[in-house]
Structures are given as structure tokens and as C-alpha cells.
Design goal:
Elements (H helix, E strand, L loop, with lengths): L6 H9 L4 E5 L2 E4 H18 L6 E5 L4 H12 L3 E4 L6 H11 L3 E5 L3 H8 L6 E5 L7 H9 L14 E3 H6 L16 E7 L7 E6 H16 L9 E4 L6 H11 L5 E4 L5 H11 L3 E4 L1 H8 L14 E4 L6 H11 L3 E7 L3 E5 L10 E5 L4 E5 L13 E6 L11 H7 E4 L2 E12 L5 E6 L3 E4 L2 E4 H9 L4 E11 L3 E10 L8 H9 L10 E4 L13 H19 L2
Parallel strand pairs: 1-11, 3-4, 3-5, 5-6, 6-7, 10-11, 10-12, 12-13, 13-14, 25-26
Antiparallel strand pairs: 1-2, 8-9, 14-15, 15-16, 16-21, 17-18, 18-20, 19-20, 20-21, 22-23, 24-25
Length: 549
């Protein structure tokens, strides 16, 4: 298998040039138009000095520019580093240094953070875009006139360029670059670190193509009306789940992708109705918000046939209510940044809410005892390990983290998923529980250790423990237990939350802070985060019993 990340899109552009590839804020782009923009972007970036093996940060939300730049960067042999558009300068600077990034593509509203980082790092060029760069002028005028479009201040300098201008000045025939799909990186995605710093997860072209091909051959075959289906993309494309889903379900089949810039319920429902969406991906919180929407009856969602969910545990009541309301189930997708897409609900059988799917053929899954790493029998609960011949089994510049997260068994290197599951008799994975270090808030994966490290950087804090408190609406809310220095005075939760807001993306900031004299530790001094988590669960159960009399 020697294919590139952009191969499927190129094939679709040849086969279906006049098909609508993308719909964004009502504007339609055919495969021919989108491919032309990708080629011009690749040419423009190359002329600016972006070369093979360079790392380019994509610091923008779901927009046509994200898709254009993602494919263009790969076409010239460079590596995409997609990050959340709500990251702060503190987070961005770390990733820029860690990945050796010299080029950033950002939104105008994020330029203020990039400017701050430019002054302290090796950044050579910044390409700025807006939410509406590729929309007609009249839509831009109306949007800005009624304050519907956020706008940021961009300071001109020799390092700052307009992404749109770079694309428009590019050539239709980009330079031909030799790419080794087994060796050259297609992306580096960042995920939470257990030592307080995000970890860069490198992926080559072969690794990305491997699970996309599995999905198309083993999950979707016989269910997709090639070149005719419509796929709704709400989840952020900087996440591996959404990116892979968008490519596999949409572009590689010549289908139409309806791209939503923000996860707002009414625009989502209107898009499903207007464009007759057949396929959809969401997180549990999105499905819950849809079901709780007061205007749900006003929308015709009858075109929906296949709804997938991932990123967090799917609550049984959401699964049940969705089926009762629309007569179709919610299927699941399961994976991680390190292992890629791992398992999918198969479409030829009724899914169960606790079953996260059947492993894809390129992903080998085993359930083991987390202490001894002995393989367990079907039905026994243990930690899930995953391997694939196509994945890169290390973190960028993180040898200690790599040793902690990857294990060698019988000559194969497995990634420790950190989730406790059991394998049922049908070979499907049933989710039981995740480790206490990972918190899932609104589908986002938050590393407890990363938040703890930021809190412990505060001059008055000597210890911190961060846990997820179960919440039926958002999955888990983030709570921090903090120990202050003896001479600390006048320090309250509001100041520490402000401290976190200045250094972390909004979804990582604790909602609650509790002060204590000490934290539970093991005999060797390891923080017993699970003990705190269990304590919070007991508190919730006690409150629930009290309310119920």
C-alpha cells in the first residue's frame, strides 16, 4: 500500500469534477474548483519557501481553507500540524518550538496570539485568513454589517501574508515533489501529556490511508451511494476522528461535505434539512443538545440514515431517545490520536450503546491485565492495547512518554489506550471505564496532568489534583483539588481559574477548585488521582439519593 493522504480526493476530482465537494455557509465548491484551489495553494506555499519535510501549523477552524491548506501542504511533501483554533499563545508557543514550525496559517481573530509567539520563536511566515475569505463579496458585506462575522486586527509586516492572496497568485500546476508515504509525515497531531506537556503524535501517509481504506472496504461498502450522498461535518477537523471521517465518508467517494464552522444546533438542523444530509458525525453532547432543542419539531431530519458518534462515552439514554425519536440508531467510532481510527459499529447489525465497535482489519486489539500485561479471555475486563504495522509508535521528542505509553509484547509494539474494555463473543469492543488521567468534556480529551502542571506553576500552589466529575450533559466537568503554600494569603478559586484561562484552551479550564491541606499519595509518592475521582463519584451518588428521598 503506497498511497498518499490526498490520493482519494484527486481520484474523486477526476471522476466527479462537476460534483459539489463542499458546502460552507451556503457557498458550494465543486471538486474541480476545490482541486484548483488546492493546487494553487500548494504552488503558492512552495513559492513562499515551504519545502518538503517542513511543518506547517493549521491554526484555523472548520472552513474551506482548512481543507485546501491540509491537502496543499501534503502535496508539496510538507507536514500538517493541525491545532485547536481556541488554543492560547502559551499552548501555541510550546508546539511551535516542539515541532520546529516555521509557518503558521491562522485566522485573523487568532493573529494576536501568533504575533506574541512570532516575537519569541523561529516563525518565518504567517498566512492569515478569515471565516469568509472564499465567500462572495455581498455575503461578506452583510455579515460584517450585522456583526455576524468575528474580525481580528492584523498587523502588516514582511512575515505576514494573506492566505487568499497566496492562493490566488499560485500556479495551477504545483511542483512535483517526491514523497515516500511510509517515511514522510502527513501530520503531527497534539494530544494531552502525562507530564504536563502536550505530546506530538506523528503520522505518515501510509498510516492515515490504512484506516481510511479499512472504513471504506469493511464498514461503508454497500451502504454509500457514491457521488450522491451528503455528509455533515460538525466536529473540528483538527481532531483525527473528524478528519478521517470527512475523508472516508465524503471526499474519497466523491460525495458532498457540508462543513459547519461552529457547533450551533439550529444551523446544524437547518443544514440537515436543506441539503438532505444522509451521514452525520457528532459527539454525545451534540446529540443531547439536538434532542433537547425547543425547535426540533420545526426541522425535517428524515434524510438522515446513518448517525455516528465518537469522542466520548455515549450515554444509554441519548442512544435510546435518538432511536425512539427518529427510528434510526446511533453507531459508534472509536480510536485515538496515537492509534488512529480503531473500531467502528458495523452497519449490518443493530448497535448497542456500550459497544464501541468492531476493530478495523489493520488494527490489532488485545485486552490485557493492566499490571501484568497478560492477555485476558473474551468477557474479562482489562486495558485495551492496539497495534498496527502502519502506525508510528513514538511521540515527538518524548522518549519518557513513549516508554510509558507503548509496550512490546511478543515482538509487536502496542499502544496503551488507557481504556478498560472487554471483548465480547462477537469480537466487538465493549467500553467499561477509562483511566483517571483522561477527562472527557464535551467530546474534548483533556489531560488531567496538563491542567495540574499549569496550576502548579502558580507561585502559591504546591500541589494539584485534577479529576473529571460525571455530568450527564457534558460528559465530565473538570474539578481541581489544590494545596497552597502555608504563607499564601488572599488566593481564591477565581484567581487560579483566571491563571488557567490565560494559559489553557477554554475547554481545559477547571470549573471548580477545592482547597485542601494535602493530596492522597501512594507509598512511592504517586498521586492517587483515581481515589479523588472515586470520592467525587460517591459524593454525587449521595446527593442523588438525598434528592430522591
Amino acid at each position: 500500500m503506497r498511497e498518499y493522504t490526498f490520493t482519494g480526493f484527486e481520484d474523486s476530482a477526476k471522476k466527479y469534477p462537476s460534483n459539489v465537494a463542499l458546502i460552507y455557509l451556503g457557498e458550494k465548491f465543486t471538486y474541480y474548483q476545490l482541486k484548483k484551489l488546492i493546487d494553487k495553494c500548494a504552488s503558492g506555499l512552495f513559492k513562499l519557501g515551504v519545502k518538503p519535510d517542513d511543518r506547517v501549523m493549521l491554526y484555523i477552524p472548520n472552513t474551506p481553507q482548512w481543507i485546501i491548506a491540509n491537502y496543499a501542504i501534503n502535496k508539496i511533501g510538507a507536514c500538517v500540524v493541525p491545532v485547536s483554533p481556541i488554543y492560547t499563545a502559551y499552548e501555541i508557543e510550546y508546539m511551535v518550538r516542539d515541532a520546529g514550525i516555521e509557518t503558521i496559517i491562522c485566522l485573523d481573530t487568532n493573529f494576536v496570539y501568533v504575533k506574541e509567539v512570532m516575537e519569541r520563536t523561529q516563525i518565518k511566515r504567517v498566512l492569515v485568513t478569515t471565516f469568509v475569505d472564499f465567500l462572495p463579496s455581498w455575503k461578506k458585506i452583510v455579515g460584517y454589517l450585522f456583526n455576524k462575522i468575528p474580525k481580528g486586527n492584523v498587523e502588516k509586516s514582511e512575515k505576514v501574508y494573506s492566505l487568499k492572496r497566496v492562493i490566488m497568485d499560485g500556479e495551477d500546476d504545483p511542483p512535483k515533489v517526491a514523497i515516500n508515504p511510509d517515511r514522510d509525515l502527513a501530520y503531527i497531531m497534539y494530544t494531552g501529556g502525562t507530564t504536563g506537556f502536550p505530546k506530538g503524535v506523528p503520522g505518515n501517509h501510509t498510516g492515515e490511508v490504512s484506516y481510511i481504506r479499512d472504513i471504506m472496504e469493511d464498514v461503508l461498502k454497500g451502504y454509500v451511494d457514491e457521488g450522491r450522498d451528503v455528509v455533515l461535518m460538525v466536529n473540528p477537523l483538527f481532531h483525527i476522528m473528524a478528519k478521517g471521517f470527512c475523508i472516508a465518508f465524503g471526499f474519497n467517494y466523491g460525495n458532498t461535505v457540508v462543513l459547519m464552522p461552529l457547533p450551533e444546533v439550529d444551523p446544524i438542523l437547518k443544514a440537515i434539512e436543506r441539503y438532505r444530509v444522509k451521514w452525520m458525525l457528532g459527539v454525545p453532547a451534540l446529540y443531547r443538545m439536538i434532542l433537547e432543542n425547543d425547535r426540533l419539531d420545526q426541522y425535517d431530519l428524515s434524510s438522515l440514515k446513518f448517525c455516528y458518534c465518537g469522542g466520548d462515552v455515549l450515554p444509554v439514554e441519548v442512544f435510546r431517545k435518538w432511536k425512539e425519536r427518529y427510528g434510526i440508531p446511533i453507531y459508534q467510532v472509536y480510536g485515538s490520536t496515537e492509534a488512529g481510527h480503531v473500531a467502528y459499529s458495523l452497519l449490518n447489525k443493530e448497535p448497542k450503546p456500550t459497544v464501541v465497535g468492531s476493530p478495523l482489519k489493520s488494527r490489532k486489539c488485545i485486552v490485557v491485565d493492566s499490571e501484568t500485561l497478560d492477555k485476558l479471555k473474551p468477557g474479562e475486563v482489562g486495558e485495551l492495547l492496539v497495534t498496527s504495522p502502519y502506525t508510528i509508535k513514538e511521540y515527538l521528542n518524548k522518549p519518557v512518554e513513549t516508554r510509558n505509553s507503548y509496550v512490546s509484547l511478543n515482538g509487536e509494539v502496542y499502544y496503551r489506550m488507557g481504556d478498560y474494555v472487554k471483548m465480547n463473543d462477537d469480537g466487538e469492543l465493549e467500553f467499561v471505564e477509562r483511566t483517571a488521567d483522561i477527562i472527557k468534556y464535551k467530546g474534548y480529551r483533556v489531560s488531567a496532568s496538563e491542567v495540574e502542571a499549569v496550576l502548579q506553576d502558580h507561585p502559591t500552589v504546591i500541589g494539584a489534583c485534577v479529576v473529571g466529575v460525571p455530568d450527564h450533559k457534558v460528559g465530565e466537568r473538570i474539578k481541581a483539588i489544590v494545596v497552597l503554600k502555608e504563607d499564601a494569603k488572599g488566593i481564591g478559586s477565581s484567581e487560579l481559574i483566571k491563571w488557567c484561562r490565560e494559559r489553557l484552551a477554554p475547554y481545559k479550564v477547571p470549573q471548580y477548585i477545592e482547597f485542601r491541606d494535602m493530596l492522597p499519595k501512594s507509598k512511592v509518592g504517586k498521586l492517587l488521582r483515581r481515589e479523588i475521582r472515586d470520592e467525587e463519584k460517591r459524593k454525587l451518588e449521595k446527593e442523588k439519593r438525598k434528592r430522591n428521598g
